[in-house]
Request: fold
Amino acid sequence: MKNKQPKRHWISGILLGLGAAYLWAVLMFSFYAVQEDWFGFGVLFAAGYAVTITSWFVVPIGATLGSVLPEMVTQKSRGEALFRGAIAGIICGLTAAIFTVGVEQWPYVSGTAQIVDATANMRSILIRFARNAVSMALVSSLCVAGWAYTLNKKAEQCDPPNG
Reply:
């Protein structure tokens, strides 16, 4: 039974990463859809597509989180587990933001894009990164903190304090 625990957490981390990425994509596409007047099922499909093409980095981030987070939050107070989960979520969100902007700007990064105004393009990239970093860190920190709280609660139920 003890050998199955790490594998289960690893899989849970992947599912959490994919779920958080989908939630973020739905929120972001919803924001744009309202502005562009195409709100509906298209948002859900676009979010699913976005998660599919970014799964090459979302899955490893989630797997890493699933293998590290349980050790970080067990045997801690609930408040400390929430805090550690939120910090881990922020780190995951910032990592995902870096990869997302890298994917979006690959033609520019690889040198194959023809840029007319490099300064304006760099400003656009930095604004997009800042927006992604803040929103991804927020969504990710909430999701991971919730999972950390759940893991901590389960650990307390299995190992009641002595006394």
